[in-house]
Hints:
Blueprint: H1 4-15, H2 18-25, H3 29-43, E1 48-51, E2 54-57, H4 59-83, E3 88-93, H5 102-109, E4 116-121, E5 134-138, E6 149-163, E7 174-175, E8 184-188, H6 196-206, E9 211-215, H7 220-228, E10 232-236, E11 247-251, E12 256-264, H8 269-279
Helix pairs in contact: 1-2, 1-3, 1-4, 2-3
Amino acid sequence: MYTQELNTFITVAELGSFSAASRKLYISKSAIMQQINLLEKKIDCILFDRNSHGVYLTEAGKIFLIQARKIQHLFIETNKIMQNYKNTIIVGTGYLSTTNFLEDYWNKFSKNQSFKLQFKEIQDYENISSDIDLIETIYASQPIPKQNFLFKKVSTSPLLIGVPPRNRLATKENISMPDLNNQTILLIKKNIFSKTSEIETYLTKHCKNIKIQTYAIYNRATVNEALINNKLILVPKSLSDFCKPFILKTVKWNFNVDVGFFYRTNANKLTHDFIDYISR
């Protein structure tokens, strides 16, 4: 297989200097020299001429560089192929993640198997790391689907209203439409959530002087803005743990969001097998 010594050799050959290779690879010059000496010993050939002006490939070194690059390319291509058969799914977790179904489905799917889950935090939902295979969350048309993700629906989650603790509705057990008169409520943008237009029409029809504002993504900044300014916010029940200290109230309506798994179109075989299992 492709080795660190081979990578070090290619770097030294391309830069013509142990010191330059040391800076590029972030290891000491002595470690660079030790790896080259070990490689030369293994193949029983002198690969570099060394002098006070730098290092230069010998004739054997020139031939070895050609072959080393072929090995490097072959290793990269082989590694890409083998990624498709790895026994691990990398699950993205973050502010929009839910944990309603993953554990149960995974325990049944992976029973008596050597499959593994790894978890990686999503710092930016607009730029999800390319190694993340699976995300459990609510469905929205942006930003996840735009990054080569497909969605597998598992269930639905009712939409509740999050009420700031100092709002006059905080003490009410359930909320009726007249209770929302003169309130300001945050809804997710129409181009992201398809039901926003329907909800907006429903609210304006049944509530007096209700003010509707929209936001792009449900995150801590959105929650804090609503909390500080005493605004209501529409929250899927599956994400209720992420909106504290808001008090969640049920509403007499029938609006829900889809909950399930986003998975990459080019995810490994194990990820697709897991999605197929869910689909049965």
